[in-house]
Every structure is written in C-alpha cells, then in structure tokens.
Amino acid sequence: MSWNYTDTEYVKLFRKMLNWEWYTDINTKVLFLHCLLKANWKDGSWHGYEYKRGQFITSLPSLAKETGLSIRQVRTALEHLKSTGEVTVKNYPKFRIITVVSYDSFQGSDRQNDRKTTGNRQAKRQASDRQATADIRTYKNNKEDKKIKEAPPPDNEDEGEPWPDDFWED
Asked: Which residue among 64, 69, 98, 148 is the one 20 to 30 A from 130 at the CA level?
C-alpha cells in the first residue's frame, strides 16, 4: 500500500527506545514503529468514526500487509504493546482504532508549532550561512588587495615578467 506523504511529514524517535523492553522483539518493535508512523497528528473522522491525535483506524489484515508480519504475529505484538501500555485498541466489527498512548510525549503537543520553530531555526541558519559566506568573500578580497599593495613595483629595466611567478597562487 502506498501513502502520499511529503518530505515535511515526520515522527520523532528518541534514542531511549534502545532501552525499551520490546526493542529486541523484532515483531513488536516493527509494529510499534508502524503505529507511530500511522498515528494521525490531528483529529479527524473516517466514515463517520471520529479519531483523535495519536490514533489511526486499521485492521489486522491491513497491519499484516503493511508490516510484512503474519496476522498471528501482529496479534501477538499488539498484545505485547497493550500489556505494557504503549497502545490501546478499540475493536469494531470490520476495523479497530489503535491509540498510541504516549503519542504526545513522542511527538510534542503541536506539529504546526514544530514546523514554525523548524522554519525559524532554518531561516536563522541560512542567514548565518550567508553572513559567513560574505565574511569569507570580504576576507579573500582584502587578502588580494593586500598582496597587490605589498608586491614590489615592476622593474622596467628588466624585460622579464614584472611579478613573481608565484604571486597569483594562494
């Protein structure tokens, strides 16, 4: 299955996950990462069913297909995640709503503010980079001016090159 995500859509992942009790259980880890990636970052609705931030609507066959796990492996991994409080699951006849319990602690409280902050940080970085580039150009220009001023005047009596051979090399 293919989704149409953009380069600006991301999830945060903390390194402390390396210490998580399910980290070495491949199926549970894969399913939890998938849940983080699938969870909605804002409230919405689907076919009249409301979902909140941190939730998504799916089915066991969909999860199996999307993760490459069998339905039995998905069911077991979901039980692991439910038993330790990472997710809750509300079952309906043809689908289920999965909630990543601590979604906000993983993803922060406001994605739009994250974009604004990132944009501001990026703009400051770009301005800083432009200033540094301008400073380098000024330095190089001053260095060239200094070389010209310090160079000995051309010797008119000598028929050779008025400047030393290595004058223009840095």
From this structure: 148
